[in-house]
Amino acid sequence: MHKAGFVNIVGNPNVGKSTLMNLLVGERVSIATFKAQTTRHRIMGILNTEDMQIVFSDTPGVLKPNYKLQESMLNFSESALADADVLLYVTDVVEKPDKNMDFIEKVRKMEVPILLLINKIDLSNQEDLVKRVEEWHELIPQAEIIPISALSKFGADVVMKRIKSLLPDSPPYFGKDQWTDKPARFFVTEIIREKILLYYDKEIPYSVEVVVEQFKEEAKSIHINAVIYVERDSQKGIIIGKQGKALKKVSTEARKTLEHFFQKNIYLEVFVKVDKDWRNSEKRLKNFGYQLD
């Protein structure tokens, strides 16, 4: 008998969802940095065995939206509640359990199995962890609570074992050689945006969108032209940096990661353009692939 199902990962920003996703799938599907709002889309990573297909889905961190981009991010998170066969609700030892109660109320009403994962337990002690487990049990009583450390890979085997036991009998949803639902261009934009998140401070990374205008793949190489969109002229200057040094650093680091990701030589050209207030423009957000309805 074959098993298959959607295992959807939700939670607030900065609790380590993307690191967990990559650990479970075994591929570098979801970018993981130390900044909140890293994931903006719903990203699927597909794990195949002979008798099983697990479709993991990482979603943006749950937050109260301040502009249309964040509304789209919340829509991606809420859509993950609708089609989950198993829900992974990720929190950590620092986060207060009563944050974003509106979203928790929706989770409480779900009838599918919920695994509540308390991440970063290496930053806590036994007494505080027990207290946190009790608080979460009171909030979501039907959830099975599993303490983990995604960074240290502690508890991942326990989580995977429970997921496999909870999957329904089903034929596979995707081809057995497929490991994500996203096209190659998507991962180029994510990797460039990851470098921007790592190398720029304050609001700059959250005002940035990346678009791939050319992706020409050959046998041993890929030629890529990408555009970094910002909201203001001052941000364009910061991204480029003095004598273009900042942009060159981002491009170089992105190229190295892309070569590792695609296992090919990468020829990468990156430009910077201003698109004023794109985060609040429905038309621009839809063009960038965000879900607004």
Would you kindly provide a written description of the structure presented here, covering whatever features stand out?
The protein has helices spanning 17-25, 68-82, 101-108, 126-139, 156-166, 184-199, 233-240, 245-262, 282-287, and strands at 3-11, 43-49, 52-58, 86-92, 114-119, 144-147, 209-217, 221-230, 265-274. It is globular and about 55 Å long. The chain has 9 helices and 9 strands. By secondary structure, the protein is of the alpha/beta class. The protein has 2 domains: 3-166, P-loop containing nucleotide triphosphate hydrolases (Rossmann fold), CATH 3.40.50.300; 184-287, K homology (KH) domain (GMP Synthetase, Chain A, domain 3, 2-Layer Sandwich), CATH 3.30.300.20. 36% of the residues lie in helices and 24% in strands. Helix 6 (184-199) crosses helix 8.
Principal-axes shape call: globular
Major sheet size, sense and barrel closure? 6 strands, mixed
CATH topology of the largest domain: Rossmann fold
Count of runs of 4 or more consecutive helical residues: 9
CATH top level label of the largest domain: Alpha Beta
How much helical structure, as a percent, in the residues? 25-40%
Q: How many independent structural domains?
A: 2
Order of helices and strands: EHEEHEHEHEHHEEHHEH
CATH-defined architecture of the largest domain: 3-Layer(aba) Sandwich
Mean pLDDT: 86
